[in-house]
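[agent] plan:
  1. take the single chain provided in the ticket
  2. run structure prediction with default settings
  3. attach structure tokens to the ticket
  4. add a short note for the reviewer (M.T.)
[agent] executing step 1
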Amino acid sequence: MSTIIINDETIEAATGETILAIARRHALLIGFLCDGRGMCQTCECYVQAGTEHLSPPNNIEQNWQTTEQLAQGYRLGCQATLLGPGPVRLITRAEDIWRKTGAVIAPPLDTRTGANLGELVQTLGGINQRFFQRFPLNIVNTLPQFVKMPPNLPGVQQYINDRWRITARRLGRKRPVSPATPPTEEESGERGG
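[agent] step 2 finished; step 3 output follows
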């Protein structure tokens, strides 16, 4: 087993698992718009420590990210796999944006809303700029992933369930909610329903 810390939560995971699979299993905030095909970059993570315990960047990551980004520790969660037992510490792009948005809505002490908003806008602008600079050619380069991993009904159902679980956990629900799991009477009463 390997130790990985995702968004400040310590988790035990099996060697060979992707960061995305680990985060989804534990309902941690991570993007996965393309469902792990390496096409959307929403699962991007910033590896703060332990890069040596992750697989080297593959062709998909090298297509989407610059050499500088990779050297700074930015990885795609759907492509990076755990190699060894050493600890890996990272924050997902989705968590980073969540935290920066929260700092705009409810500024921490000794911060200003305007400065926090500027940091959020700069982050979102940088993400969009990097994506669209590399977009046309990289979509063509990653299309084989879509063919290799075509959508299927069980996969779509798992995608929806994972989205519900992550959202429910983020919103502090007592138990994960899915379309197949209606709220209990107690939960309905909590919401005034």
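[agent] step 4 note for reviewer: Residues 176-193 have pLDDT under 50 and may be disordered.
[agent] ticket updated
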